[in-house]
């Protein structure tokens, strides 16, 4: 008979022998857990950026000049010509710039002082002021301010808007534009 201690050692050595992994298992585990090759992010970003630029070009470059969408908007800004003044209100000597955007294909900006027309844009080549500009979906003009009450009118229509004569009055011009179904925005400015 054999020694009981030797038999026990042999039995322990054989224990779990049937659960031993197959040969080459370490290489398969390392291959399965290896990090995949990282894709270069610019391979995806480059084509996406090119597509975005083409879409932007299609949206903006293919529109006819001056064509915009949406409703008419009027913005009025003031440039105080370098003088230091108190408050945000406009003062005599400031330059007022009025800009109309949106609306139909044709836009105009009319500026009245004491209800009498002082500037209209667009106008004829002889009557158009030095600050009148109409391009890229906006029409803008400006005047040097004096004391008084100014009314700024922005108009838009599907047909060209006739420039009112310099002797015209605010109420007559605005009602005439309404008769032509023009969209109108107005604001008043007090200069002291």
Which band does the percent of strand residues land in? Answer: 25-35%
Question: What is the typical, i.e. mean, pLDDT?
Answer: 80
- Topology as a string of helices (H) and strands (E): HHHEEEEEEEHE
Distance between the termini: 126 Å
Task: Please describe what this structure looks like.
The protein has 192 residues and is of the alpha+beta class. Helix content is 27%, strand content 30%. The chain has helices spanning 4-14, 25-33, 41-61, 170-179, and strands at 73-79, 95-101, 106-113, 116-121, 133-135, 138-144, 148-157, 183-191. A four-stranded antiparallel sheet has the order 1-2-6-5, with no helix packed on it. A four-stranded antiparallel sheet has the order 4-3-7-8, covered by helices on one side. A hairpin with a 2-residue loop joins strand 3 and strand 4. The radius of gyration is 39 Å and the shape is rod-shaped. The mean pLDDT is 80.
Task: Put the structure in a nutshell.
This protein has helices at 4-14, 25-33, 41-61, 170-179; strands spanning 73-79, 95-101, 106-113, 116-121, 133-135, 138-144, 148-157, 183-191.
Reconstruct the topology from this structure.
Layout: H1 4-14, H2 25-33, H3 41-61, E1 73-79, E2 95-101, E3 106-113, E4 116-121, E5 133-135, E6 138-144, E7 148-157, H4 170-179, E8 183-191
Antiparallel strand pairs: 1-2, 2-6, 3-4, 3-7, 5-6, 7-8
Provide key terms for this protein.
single chain; 4-stranded antiparallel sheet; alpha+beta; 4 helices; 192 residues
